[in-house]
Design brief:
Blueprint: E1 9-15, E2 19-26, E3 29-37, H1 41-59, E4 63-68, H2 98-102, E5 109-113, H3 114-125, E6 134-139, E7 143-149, E8 152-153, H4 186-190, H5 192-199, H6 212-231, E9 235-239, H7 240-245, H8 247-261, H9 273-276, E10 277-279, H10 286-304
The structure holds adenosine-5'-diphosphate and zinc ion.
Adenosine-5'-diphosphate binds near residues 141, 202, 203 and 241.
């Protein structure tokens, strides 16, 4: 059974805002790794491509997965597939991320967001292991969501942007929020920069009992309830610097979710919520492991449908 999914040698690239991690691996095992700073698209992608060429000769990987910061165009068959959209990161708007990396490996390639990659990894090996329907939420510099539905990552027009859901506010709260598009959307209320703007100092410097956390927890609970009702999630996995760095927020979110649901969803109650809303488990490896899972999906898809790249 040399072609079993767990036997495949694959390449994964996590393209992050500050650093890019490329790995070659088999299943969860990472055989080699390269880390390059994310500077200009040219310099970063050239450095990664050089390593990928080397790995192609040494390991003969079967596919490539890229888990990228966003927003990124995901519709296969369109001219901008795999290109960055209008990102604020200087020099990256419009950059082709998929093309230059896919060109150096003969196998099929796939791209999705870094959050979706992390979601897939948590679903295979981490906090949502074995589940088919769940949401991974990173609460950090932004609020990002990866949604897995029926075992597949959700994307359509682009990728889910549920961090920009408009949430109800706690009565009397008039903080304007920091989202440049919406002000007080979820990201505008609960991201690290939002907390810093509200509290006047960095989120990591706030005491666990600072009054600001109640607003953060409330906004997140509102957003999570919308997601639970919409995608019928079996679990909500919370990661990111704020999400993991402030365990009291998770403890505040859980009863608030139960209260907001009002007993409407069977099986979601005070006794079960700790198993439904859970912290991420894979840490920094979720990104590269997720990229490997995107590579696995590319290989599986191309074994049924001839990849356009191979003609
Ligand atoms: P990114 O979202 O950029 O990938 P992180 O998930 O680490 O990276 O999020 C960075 C944000 O999280 C910053 O706004 C930072 O202030 C905040 N942050 C990091 N660590 C903590 C912590 N322990 N407690 C609260 N906020 C934190
Ligand atoms: Zn917004």
């Amino acid at each position: 059974m040399t072609n079993d999914a767990t036997d495949r040698l694959l390449v994964g690239v996590e393209l992050g805002g500050t650093k890019t991690i490329a790995v070659v691996g088999r299943g969860r095992e990472i055989l080699d790794r390269a880390v390059v700073p994310t500077t200009t698209p040219r310099a970063t992608l050239d450095a990664v491509a050089t390593r990928l060429k080397l790995w192609d000769e040494t390991f003969r990987p079967q596919g490539l997965g890229i888990a990228s910061f966003g927003p990124v165009a995901l519709r296969a068959g369109t001219p901008d597939h795999g290109h960055m959209l209008d990102t604020p990161k200087p020099g990256w708007a419009g950059a082709d991320v998929l093309g230059p990396l896919a060109a150096v490996l003969p196998g099929p390639a796939a791209i999705h967001t870094d959050v979706t990659g992390a979601a897939l990894a948590e679903g295979r090996w981490g906090a949502a292991a074995g589940l088919s329907d769940f949401v991974y939420i990173t609460v950090g510099t932004g609020v990002g969501m990866g949604i897995v539905s029926g075992g597949r990552p959700v994307s359509g027009r682009m990728h889910p942007e549920a961090g920009h859901l408009r949430v109800r506010r706690l009565p009397g709260d008039d903080f304007a929020g920091v989202c440049p598009f919406h002000g007080d959307c979820l990201e505008g209320l609960a991201s690290g920069p939002a907390i810093a703007a509200r509290a006047g100092k960095g989120a990591e410097h706030l005491a666990p009992d600072d009054p600001a956390w109640a607003f953060v927890a409330d906004a997140l609970a509102e957003g999570i309830v919308m997601l639970m009702l919409t995608v019928s999630a079996q679990a909500i996995v919370i990661g990111g610097g704020v999400g993991l760095g402030q365990p009291q927020v998770l403890a505040m979110i859980r009863p608030r979710i139960v209260a907001l649901l009002g007993g409407y969803l069977p099986g979601v109650d005070a006794g079960s919520i700790d198993r439904i809303v859970v912290p991420a488990a894979l840490g920094g490896d979720a990104g590269p492991l997720g990229a490997l899972l995107l590579a696995e999906m590319a290989v599986e898809q191309s074994s049924g449908v001839a990849s356009s790249k191979r003609q």
